[in-house]
Amino acid sequence: MKGKIIVAGGGHGGIAAASILAGEGYDVTVYERHTQEQMGYDWTDIFDKNGFTVAGMELPPREKYNLKNDMTFIGPSERIKLRQNTDPEKLEIQMERKDIYAHLISQAQKNGAKFVFGCNVEGPVMLGNRVAGIRTETETIYADLVIDAAGLHSPIRENLPAYLGVQNQVGEYERFFIYRAFYNKAAETEEDRFKVYLLREGKLGICWVAAEEEHTDILIGRFAPFDLDEVQRTVDSLRESNPAIGTEKIRGGQFVEIPVRQSLGLLVADGYAAIGDSAFMTVPIIGSGIANSLKAARLLADAVLADTEGAYSANTLWKYQRDFYRNIGGPLAPLACVKLLLTRLKPEELDYIFETGILNGDDMTIDAESTSLSAILSNVTPADLVVKARGVIKNPAVLLKILQLGRQIAAVSAVVSSMPRGYDPARAVNWVKNYNNAFKR
After folding, report:
1. Spatial CA neighbour of 333 closest among 384, 415, 262
2. In this structure, what DSSP letter does residue 348 have?
3. 45-84, pLDDT tens digit by residue?
4. Of 144, 105, 153, which Cα lies nearest the Cα of 125?
5. Main-chain phi, psi angles of 117, to 5 degrees
6. How far is CA 306 from the centre of its chain?
7. What are the backbone dihedrals phi and psi of residue 243, each rounded to the nearest 5 degrees, phi first?
8. How far is CA 323 from CA 296, 317, 319, 328, in A?
9. In terms of DSSP H, where are the helices of 137-227?
10. Is the pTM of this model over 0.85?
11. Where do the domains of the chain lie, and which CATH numbers do they carry?
C-alpha cells in the first residue's frame, strides 16, 4: 500500500481524486459530514460531462441526464433579450446533484476508496509547518496528505495558520447567496424556456426561470444575504411575466452560498492540497464548478503520483499548483474580472450594452468548451468588433469601465504568468498577495 491520504469533505473533485489515487494503490478515505443519502442539494446541475472522462471515470448512464436548454439573457429594463445559440455538439448536461454524487461515490468505491459518512471534520492537525491530519468531533486522524474538499467554508482551509499563505476567508463580491426551488408548472412553456434576468429591479444579482417538462425551476442570486420574504416578493413579481410559474413549491427551497471569484491563490502546503469549492474553482460569472473540479482531480492525482518519495510537500505538490493555473485557473482569471465589471455596472449601463450590440447572443453563449474569456469571444467577427467599438465609444461611462476591465485583465494575466516555477515559501506568499490584489474591485 502506498501513502495514506485523507479527503476532508465529499466535494466532487475530492471524490474524483480519491477514486484515481485509490485505484493507484493509495490508502484513501473520504470523511463527509452528511450521510450518503443527505449529500447533494435538491436540484440539478449544469456542467461539462467530459469532466468525468478526464478524471478517468465512466460517463453516467444516458437516462440520468439531459442536455441543457439555451439561455435567454434579459437586461434590467427587459426590453432586449439575448439568446444563446449553442452548438448541439458542445451542449453541457443537466443532471440531478444526488445522481452525480451516487455516480462519483460508486466509481470511487469500485477503485477502493473508503468513505466515512456522518463525520464532522473540525480542522487540521498541524505538526510544525505541516498539515498532518484532521480533527473530527471524536478523534484525531493522521495521514501523509490531506486533500481539502470541504467546500467554500472549509474548516480545514479556514483554520490553517496564516503563515502558510493559503487564504482562509472569502471577501465581498466573492460569494453568491442563492435561493433555488422548483414550482409546479402552471402553463405551457413559451419559446424562451430558460430565462436569466440580470440586475432585475436594480438588484445586484440574477434570477432565472427555467421551464422544464414537469416543473419550473426558480433561482434567485444576490451578493448579499436575503430572506424568504424577499424570495416570495421576487417569485410573485416573476410570475407576472412568466405564467409557467405555479404557486406550489414541489421541491428545493434551499439557501446556499457558492464562490464566484478567482481561484484560490495558493492551493498547496506541506501535507495539504485544496480542490473544488475549497479552492474556489467555479466559473466566476456562472458559478458552476463541477467540471473544473473533476479535471483538477486529474492534475492533483498526477502530482501525487509523480512524488515517488512520498514527501507530499508544497514543493512536490507545486506541480499541481502550476498545472492547475496553466489549464484552468489562469484561463478563468479574466472571467473573474468580467464578474467584477458586472458588479460595477448600473442597470441603465447594462441595458445600453445589450441594446447597442456591445454584447450579443453569441457573446453570451457559454458551452462545454467555454473555460476562458478568449474561448467565449473566439467567434467575434471584425464586423462585430466595429459594432462593439462604436457602442462603447458613444457612452463615456461605459467606455471608462471597459477600459478599467482591460487594464485589470492585463494586470491579472501578468501576475498569473509570473507564478514561481518552483516552490519557495516567501516567493509563493508574495505571489499570492499580488494575485489577490490584482482583483480588487
Report:
1. 262
2. H
3. 999 999 999 999 999 999 999 998 888 999 999 998 999 8
4. 144
5. -95, 160
6. 27
7. -65, -10
8. 9, 10, 6, 8
9. none
10. yes
11. 4-171+260-331 (3.50.50.60), 175-259 (3.30.9.10)
Closest CA to 76 of 217, 256, 206: 206
Examine the pLDDT at 14 and tell me if it is beyond 60: yes
Q: Which residue has the cell 455596472?
A: 345
Q: Which residues pair with 146 in a beta bridge?
A: 6, 272
* 3-state SS assignment for residue 355: helix
* Other Cβ atoms within 10 Å of 2 Cβ, number: 16
The C-alpha atoms of residue 23 and residue 304 are separated, in whole angstroms, by: 13
- Residue 326 C-alpha from the chain's centroid: 17
Q: Is 347 buried (19+), middle (13-18) or exposed (0-12) by CB count in 10 A?
A: middle
Could you read off the pLDDT of 132-143 as tens digits, one per residue? 999 999 999 999
Q: Which three cell numbers stand for residue 399?
A: 467606455
Specify the amino acid at residue 324. F
Residue 242 Cα distances to 82, 128, 216, 222, 254, angstroms: 17, 58, 10, 21, 21
Q: What is the DSSP string of 55-119?
A: TT-PPPPGGGEEEPPPPEEE-TTS--EEE----GGG--EEEEHHHHHHHHHHHHHHTT-EEEES-
